[in-house]
Amino acid sequence: MKNKSIKTLKFLGLGFIEPLIRLISGEEPKKNTQLFIKKSLLPLSSIFLFVLIWHLGSAALYNSEAEVRIEKARSEQGEAAAIAMAECIASGDVSCQPNTLPSPTKVWGAFQALLDDHNTISQKKSDFKDKVAATNAQREAQGLDPITYTGRPSFVDQIGTSLKTVAAGCLLAMLIAVPIGIIIGLSESLRTSFNWLIQIFKPVSPVVWLLLVFMVVKTLITDPSLDKSFIISFISVGLCAMWATLVNTSMGVSTVDKDYINVARVLKLNVGQNIFKIILPASFPLIFTGLRITVSVAWMVLIAIELLAQSPGLGSFVWEEFQNGANDSNAKIIVAMFVIGAIGFMLDRIMLSVQNVMTFNKAAA
Amino acid sequence: MKIFKSTIVLILLTVIWSACSGTKAKNKETTVTSASSALLIEKPQLTFGFIKLTDMAPLAIAKELGYFEDEGLFVTIEAQSNWKNVLDRVIDGQLDGSHMLAGQPIAAGAGFGRQAELVTPFSMDLNGNGITVSNEVWSKMKPNVPLDAEGKTIHPIKADALLPVVTEFKNSGRPFKMGMVFPVSTHNYEIRYWLAAAGIHPGMYTAGNIQGQVDADVLLSVTPPPQMPATLEAGTIYGYCVGEPWNQQAVFKGIGVPVVTNYDIWKNNPEKVFVMTKKFVEENPNTAVAVTKALIRAAKWLDEPGNRPEAVGILSMPEYVGADSVVIANSMTGTFEFEKGDKRSMPDFNVFYRYNATFPFYSDGIWFLTQMRRWGQIPESKPAEWYHSTIKEIYRPDIWSSAADMLVKEGKIPKEDMPETDGYKSPTADFIDGTQYDGKDPIGYINSFKIGNKDEAL
Amino acid sequence: MALLELNNISKSFGVGSTRNEVLSDINLSVEEGEFVAIVGFSGSGKSTLINLINGLLFPDEGEVLLNGKKIVGPGPDRGVIFQNYSLLPWLSVYSNVKLAVDEVFSHLTRKEKEEHIRKYIDMVNLTPAIDKKPDELSGGMRQRVSVARALAMNPEILLMDEPLSALDALTRGSLQEEIIKIWSQDKKTAILITNDVDEGIIMADRIIPLTPGPRATLGPEFKVPFARPRDVTEMNRDYTYKRLRNNILEYLMDVGASRKQVSDQKYILPDIKPVMPGRIIFGKKRKEEAVKYF
Question: Are the Cβ atoms of B16 and A167 closer than 8 angstroms?
Fold first, then answer.
């Protein structure tokens, strides 16, 4: 039971909990206490330190901006205005709050506000569903699409949309990069001929990819019922992120162990069998390393792309909050930043676990 | 391992499929009879766009107060990033309709920028813009502004006060840059009008130079509205002309001072319009009328005394304008703050319904055409008849009237709220420089300006 | 007619100053059902020789004939047991063998194939480990999988390229016996390449020394006069065994000593660069490692 749960945790990328479990079950207390401190407490304390520095920094920024405001009121409107300004700031009135880096407490508050908001919106959604239930039943009878919720998506919904975009983008990247990588990996001349092209396209910025994709998609897709902004954003994400997989696949394929190739030759496998039975499995470790990079790049460029493509998701959330410029907007942006970081971390862990399952131990060949 | 592999592929495929199909559900023609009217709605599920500005209020109100749903419309309202994007997405059919600059459908019809057949059945508001300059420019400008007995600046402030500052910048070799939101926006024409009235040349558009900076004393460039304060703060521009809340935002953040509102530049000028494509209106005539009905009701509600604070609350929701409610309230509740602390009463700064604000007057549209010709966005001269026929393709009072008719019958608006008009307002001289404008004589109007293109009367 | 014939084979690698003549003037003929061992020092070109037979390499001069036909490439009619097992690490024991069986016996039904595969895995006593991956097996077990894979193809000739050299002495001894036992069941023609003279004597009918390279060639053959089945302990006590062993060793030593005096060959050390994990080196592969399929 214990070992099984440890195995599961390791598979989930949560191996750092292992010493704690062993400790609780009373196994080698000294060693596991040390391991627990090293693997869990140290990272936690570094996070704590970070929050502390952040707190001090934002307090300093807040004070200096408040100072500037009071000074400005004094120099422009006299002493009375300065005192009024100081009182106004102290009272926490939004109309005169210094607009600067929000403190950790503010960000935590914004996080909770976003969660509450999500609950409110979920409620609204179900209300809406009840309201249009009759209409939708009627529409269904007529063979028409049902009326869907028309309100604003919540923060949580937007995370979902972003994940969808990334998943679609990565799948696209995989479908393009792996086959091309295999083809150019198999032939040195193809590899040399594509090398320049790859090197030129690899560093192209997400914004430019977006514009390129936009030009093409705009012309190709004229059907207004398709969600163009989603199509544009997931294709751009895919194109930005596919290079790591492409290069790693071609590298993996071109460096397949000669022994395996000899086996294939002795068995007289045809090209297809050779690729699917020998070359592809043998290159899995490198392909997966590439896919891992692809996923993290995809998640990284997603924000910029969503922001420009007007595709709903975390990117447009950040952008809208920046545009809103409200008192709590900065805090919400920072919440989004942490959520983005945490999800990126989780995605990487998941990819790592998948990689561990899918690949073999090369040393044992 | 194999099973695992195929599971992953399956999951990813499902995700993509659902992502794609989820979006497909949006658009499909249908017939739903609305609850309160006899209109047969062709397309009940609609998506409208807007830019984060307080004058999008009729859309937010129609949705939040359920006016759209009263008409059997289920409307999603999406914030857009900039005006070009709005135009593109309406033309491409990703948006069924949108909050737009009054100049945009006209320019699309007149052939400046992207061409398309767009129609306007509903004018969203009057006034609502302001010109803000940076603290540095204001400190240099202020000595040139006349003061009243109490030592307060006398409004309206003319650009004459700015002229010495522009000259000073010019002499020291610094180009004087100001921001406006879009080449065909009301703001562009207003800031040009204000500058040119004081003899400051804002630059011409030519066929070869579409930057609009030929011969310019002041270089005007495009900045999306929500970025105006940040751009001003960064020092990229020294002033801007933009809608609310971005002038009040500058006062709040202490980065600039609004000097004039467009109410003073041209009293009760049309600002934003609601735009759909001609194709959409032809294919869904009842839907277009129903949308117009809901918007007229929303505009009426907005101009009823006492409703503004509630409107401010709705607009400050993050999905609409999203700025702090104090900022929005400053311009929506009948006051306007110029210098910090200099709050003045401006009851007509934001008009949504009074003065027949929602009616799409041909004469208002023609004013934009005359300004496009004046500044060279329309490069060659056109006969007067062209102005009238062009605007009649775009402004659609007929849709407005059938919507208003139904509202009168339903008892939602009084009969006298429908103007008796041929679509042209009577001649007016309510401009900052007192020039007379008659919509029926566009050529004569163009020729009455000192700065700008002149046309032969044909 | 001999089953396998090598006529005046020579083979060299490289050009110009780096040209390395590995094999020269090799003549060999192997009869059906014969077990031939080719014994030589490390680096003498034994692997090159076996690769010429299995078709992974082609001779510069001369010809390799199997059943009187020239060899044009590798094929399942020659089962190869590689020195480093060459098992596919991502496949189980069963699947490794299946890969070969699927290829050679594509006409069989699924069930027949499965029986066939299980038969050979059972033959090498790996049935308990049938679902294990190579990295869960010991070296000896891995080589037995390799043997099962080669035999399961039912080849005309079995080529063994130092199959036991990576194993410890004990495993080696038991595997030698096992291979002989399996071989004796259907007496397939077999060529064993080894650097261990004893191994050759225990297993083969005929031993042919390969002189040390460069320009290695085959020496005079030594017949192994022991009847099968052979008893290793008994053989060890036999005077004939010791004399045969000494003769072969002496021959190899003598040729080796005379070679050393005349050889001014410089041995080129392999150019090995450490590869950082995760670092991408693109288009810089060493040419001889490149894989070409198109």
Answer: yes
For residue C277, give the DSSP letter. T
Closest by Cβ to A310, choosing from B74, B85, B253: B85
Which residue of chain A comes nearest to B25, CA vs CA? Answer: A145
Q: Compare CB distances from C282 to A195, A259, A361 and report the shortest one's residue.
A: A195
Inspect the interface and report whether the beta carbons of B5 and A132 lie closer than 8 Å.
no
Is A255 close to C289, i.e. CB distance below 8 A?
Answer: yes
Q: Is the minimum CB–CB distance between C56 and chain A shorter than 8 Å?
A: yes
Q: Is the pTM of this model over 0.80?
A: no
CA distance C182 to B159: 105
Rounded to an integer, what distance in angstroms lies between the CA atom of residue C85 and that of residue C142? 6
Q: How far apart are CA B265 and CA B197, in angstroms?
A: 10
Helix, strand, or coil here: C41? coil
Of C75, C89, C282, the CB nearest to A247: C282
Could you give the CA distance from residue C53 to residue C6 in angstroms, rounded to a whole number? 8
In this model, does residue A230 exceed pLDDT 60? yes
Residue B130: which of B22, B246, B27, B38 has the closest Cα?
A: B246
CA dist C214 to C14, C42, C46, C255, Å? Answer: 13, 12, 11, 12
| Banded model confidence at residue C100, pLDDT cuts 50, 70, 90 | confident
How do residues A250-307 score in pLDDT, each as one tens digit? 988 888 888 888 888 888 888 888 888 888 888 888 888 899 899 989 988 888 888 7
The per-residue pLDDT of chain A, averaged, comes to: 84
Contact B20 A171 (CB under 8 A): no
How sure is the predictor about A175, in pLDDT bands with cuts at 50, 70 and 90?
Answer: very high
Taking CB atoms and an 8 Å cut-off, how many pairs form between chains A and B?
Answer: 139
Burial A166-176 (b: 16+ CB within 10 A, else e): bbbbbbbbbee
Determine which of A282-296, B4-18, B61-75 has the lowest per-residue pLDDT on average: B4-18
> Would the pLDDT of C217 be above 90?
no
* Residues B238/B134, Cβ–Cβ less than 8 Å: yes
Q: Quick check: A65 and A98 in contact, CB under 8 A?
A: yes
Q: For residue C46, which of C73, C26, C66, C70 has the smallest C-alpha distance?
A: C26
User: Which of residues 114 through 143 in chain C touch A, CB cutoff 8 A?
Assistant: 133-135
> Subunits with at least 3 CB pairs below 8 A relative to chain C?
A
Q: By the 8 A CB rule, do B424 and B432 touch?
A: no
Please give the Cα distance from C214 to C19 (Å, whole number): 11
Q: Is the ipTM of this complex over 0.95?
A: no
Q: Letter for the amino acid at B357?
A: A
Higher-pLDDT residue of A79, B270: B270
Residue B395 has pLDDT above 60, yes or no: yes
Residue B211: the pLDDT is: 81
B125/B332 Cα distance (integer angstroms): 12
Residue B42's identity, in one-letter code, is: E
Cβ-contact B180, B241 below 8 angstroms: yes
Tokens 């000899």 locate to A262
Among B7, B9, B12, the residue to mutate for chain A (most A Cβ within 10 A): B12
CB contact under 8 A, A326 and B316: yes
- Return the partners of chain A (3 or more C-beta pairs < 8 Å): B, C
Span B379-387, average pLDDT: 88
**Contact list, B14 vs chain A (CB under 8 Å):** none
- Is residue A359 less than 8 Å (CB to CB) from chain C? yes
Top pLDDT among A213 and A4 is at A213
Distance CA B92, CA B85 (A): 10
pLDDT of residue B291: 93
Calpha distance C62→A292 (Å, rounded): 51
Q: Do A247 and C89 touch (CB under 8 A)?
A: no
- Please indicate if any CB of chain C lies within 8 Å of the CB of A236: no
Across-strand partners of C192?
Answer: C37, C160
